[in-house]
Every structure is written in structure tokens, then in C-alpha cells.
From TrEMBL:
Keywords: GTP-binding, Nucleotide-binding
The organism's place on the tree of life at top rank: Eukaryota
All copies of domain AIG1-type G, residue ranges: 20-219
UniProt protein name: AIG1-type G domain-containing protein
Pfam families per the UniProt record, alphabetical: AIG1
Family under the similarity heading: Belongs to the TRAFAC class TrmE-Era-EngA-EngB-Septin-like GTPase superfamily. AIG1/Toc34/Toc159-like paraseptin GTPase family. IAN subfamily.
Length: 260
């Protein structure tokens, strides 16, 4: 379900309309997915922490090329894991991402580092995780290749031809792709071209963004609160047990010294 929100039309006072972007994608164990770096590049500021794994969805806003841009970073699932194997808290955070940019995102950017090799067995995992959003995500998705050095479209196209999985993902995304050299922060044309591709996609979708169910968002927040409280209680119980054990150990040490 989607609502009309044509990003190709002008906003108030002739300004460019806002853009709402959700970054999604898997990760490889102990290897960053590059979503946070992508968000920083798009917004032109280091607003997402790239030194740690993203544990919860976070939304940041900046003025970019004359328009208000919201980017939501999300936890990455392990590419080869089924949705059931992804921690429940991660699954809820991924779902909640679309509720952090109301009334809903214009685009999902599926972030894939250029050097990452994806085997064919990631297909069911990708489908299962995108079903968390309860919308046709692929019709609102651009495949985002990230690199830390110059990387031409020709190089990417050659890579895609050699990788059946990349061919499949690109096909699912309506052959929409973009290459981002995240090491060149000064190159605004990369972002300008991305915005143009987003506008074209939205126009082809009838000028619509992905709508979100407010009641579903409220339910997710309540569930998150319950999980956080349970986790906090478990942490408190563990700390309490550790203190008790420490007292017992120290007590035994004192007794041993006394007997000596």
C-alpha cells in the first residue's frame, strides 16, 4: 500500500521536496556492511557511528543539495542466516526502521560492498528479511554498490555478469543500481545522481512512497519496550549474581588467611 508523495514536484516556497531513505542489507560476521558509511556519505556528515555494529535503527536528517533528507540506518542480518536465526530484537528494529521516517520511505537502498561475494544460498534469506516490512520492498529498492576506491559502472556490470546472485538481485530491484565511492566525500555528483535515480523510481511507481501502518508502529514500540526491560532485568540479575559470587570468594579467601 502506498500514498501519493511525488518527490519530483517542488515543496513549499519552491524548495525541493524531502527525501526519506532506509538503508538495508546483510552483513558478514566480523565484517561491516557499509550501511553506516553510506548514510554518512549521503548526508555529508559523520552522523552514524561506523566503529560499531548498528544494533538499532537510527534516523538522521540533514540539508543536502537543497532538500531535507532523512536517512535511516538499520541492523544488518547475516547474509546466510534464515530470518528465524536472526535475533528477535534485530528483526523488530529492522521492521521499526520505516516508522522512523513518517509517513514512510521513498526508497530502500540495498547496500552491498563491491568486494563482497554472495553465493546463491543468500536468496531465501534476503526474501525472508525483506518480508519483515509487509510491503513490496523490491519495487522501491535500488541496489547500492559501495566501494572505497573509484569503481565505474562498467566494472560493476562486469562483476554482475560473473555473479548469478547479483544478476538475480538486480532483476528483483527492477535493474536499478547505483555505485558509490564512499572514500570521495567531496564528489557531490554521486549523491546528485542517486537522488535523480530515486526520483525516477518514485515517478515510475506512480509518485508514491511506501506507506506505514501507525498502529503497527505503536505495537512494535511496545514490543521493543518489553524486550528492553527483559534484557535489563537479565543484566541486573547477572550483575547481582556476580556480586554475590565475589563476596563468597572474598569471604573464603579471608577464612583461608585466618587459618594459615
Amino acid at each position: 500500500m502506498a500514498n501519493v508523495d511525488d518527490v519530483s514536484s517542488c515543496g513549499q516556497n519552491g524548495s525541493l521536496p524531502a527525501l526519506r531513505i532506509v538503508l538495508i542489507g546483510g552483513r558478514v560476521d566480523r565484517c561491516p556492511s557499509g550501511k553506516s558509511s553510506t548514510g554518512n556519505f549521503i548526508l555529508g556528515q559523520d552522523v552514524f557511528d561506523t566503529s560499531r555494529r548498528t544494533a538499532q535503527s537510527e534516523a538522521r536528517q540533514q540539508e543536502v543539495l537543497g532538500r531535507r533528507v532523512t536517512v535511516v540506518d538499520t541492523p544488518g542480518w547475516l547474509w546466510h542466516y534464515s530470518r528465524e536465526d536472526t535475533p528477535e530484537l534485530d528483526r523488530i528494529e529492522i521492521q521499526n526502521s520505516v516508522h522512523l521516517c513518517p509517513p514512510g520511505p521513498h526508497v530502500f537502498l540495498l547496500v552491498i560492498p563491491v568486494g563482497l561475494h554472495l553465493s546463491q544460498d543468500i536468496r531465501p534469506s534476503l526474501k525472508e528479511h525483506l518480508e519483515l516490512f509487509n510491503v513490496d520492498v523490491f519495487s522501491h529498492t535500488i541496489m547500492m554498490f559501495t566501494a572505497d576506491a573509484p569503481c565505474s559502472d562498467k566494472m560493476i556490470e562486469s562483476k554482475i555478469r560473473r555473479r548469478p546472485t547479483l544478476q538475480w538481485i538486480l532483476q528483483q530491484c527492477g535493474n536499478r543500481k547505483h555505485v558509490l565511492n564512499i572514500s570521495d566525500r567531496e564528489d557531490e555528483d554521486q549523491v546528485k545522481m542517486l537522488f535523480e535515480k530515486i526520483e525516477t523510481m518514485v515517478t515510475n511507481n506512480g509518485g508514491r512512497h511506501c506507506s506505514v501502518d501507525i498502529s503497527h508502529g505503536n505495537a512494535l514500540r511496545e514490543k521493543l519496550q518489553v524486550l528492553v526491560e527483559k534484557a535489563s532485568k537479565r543484566f541486573g540479575d547477572v550483575q547481582k549474581q556476580r556480586r554475590k559470587l565475589k563476596i563468597q570468594i572474598e569471604g573464603r579467601s579471608e577464612v583461608s588467611l585466618f587459618l594459615c
